[in-house]
Amino acid sequence: DAAHVLDRDCTTLSRHVLQQLQSFSAEAQDLSALMNRIALAGKLIARRLTRAGLVEDALGFTGRTNVQGESVKKMDIYANDVFISVFKQSGLVCRLASEEMEDPYYIPENCPIGRYTLLYDPIDGSSNVDINLNIGSIFSIRRQQGDDLDQKATDLLQDGHQQLAAGYILYGPSTVLVYSIGRGVHSFTLDPSLGEFILSRENIQVPAHGANYSVNEGNFWQWDDSIRDYIRYVHRHDGYSARYSGALVGDFHRILMQGGVFLYPGTRKRPEGKLRLLYETAPLAFLIEQAGGQASTGTQRLLDVVPSELHHRTPLVIGSPEDVALVESFIQERR
Ligand code: AHG
Ligand code: MN
Ligand code: MN
Ligand code: MN
């Protein structure tokens, strides 16, 4: 009926958060305001991306190398700074920890302690930026514990169960924001004519099994025998389809929607894998478990991993329960 249609068209992100929590408590208001800021960052980055080819100085490399040892794209820095600027006046976030910054950024003024910390990957899949393929931003929100006067941010070195909220923005043919505050996974599509993210899917559940397996097979000879055995298995059996975009957010979104498994295993050179725990694998693990799926390092539940430092890396096996279990069975066999 008309009222329902009107209602559906107007379920914005901040309203949805308050509906989720069925309360107007301080924390509910905080989370709603935090998600609103995330949405604003997403809109600003999406706008820049849609015009990147036309705007001077938007594409290409900065010539610098980040703490990860990666060549930094101009878009990495632009997006990194967008998140800082949208949270500066919020009074909600006192620290921002990002893939692109060795140490967290502390918002100097008017920052009451015990509030929130944003952990984020400003542009995930940077290698896709200059070729106009899908990229994303990944975010995770934790409560700041203690006053962190020495600015060592040691309270961030806790497992993924500490996350209050997590999600991502996928910059694709449309801009989609997916989030969870621990009450299911929900997706919103940006309506550019409104400048609002409008609810598109509620309580997303990952299928128990899916055909997609998503992994960079160029690393085949660097993997452990157990992973090679798994790959040989899917090569030999019907019903599997290889899909890999080079951007974790896009590959994850496909798995969330259609089922299957994404893997980024450790290699001989880098046994701990490439992906970073605090702002890549832990937020996605939070989401996939909320959607009825699983995430592990291959041997340990991902949400239980305690980081040794801010840019801690973990191997990742994530997706449909049956498909994650199959990968883990090959690893168990070889242990
Ligand atoms: P980022 O662009 O934030 O550094 O992340 C890139 C990550 C992830 O998005 C993707 O799944 C993976 O790197 C691709 O790595 P390979 O090119 O080694 O497959
Ligand atoms: Mn990077
Ligand atoms: Mn990334
Ligand atoms: Mn990144």
From TrEMBL:
Pfam families: FBPase, FBPase_C. CDD domains: FBPase (cd00354). Its cofactor is Mg(2+). One of its GO terms (cellular component) is cytosol. GO terms for molecular function: fructose 1,6-bisphosphate 1-phosphatase activity; magnesium ion binding. It is an enzyme of class 3 (hydrolase). Residues 12-201 form the Fructose-1-6-bisphosphatase class I N-terminal domain. Its main location: cytoplasm. It comes from the Bacteria. Homotetramer. Belongs to the FBPase class 1 family. PANTHER family: FRUCTOSE-1,6-BISPHOSPHATASE-RELATED, SEDOHEPTULOSE-1,7-BISPHOSPHATASE, CHLOROPLASTIC. This is Fructose-1,6-bisphosphatase class 1. The lineage of its organism: Bacteria, Bacillati, Cyanobacteriota, Cyanophyceae, Nodosilineales. The gene is fbp_1.
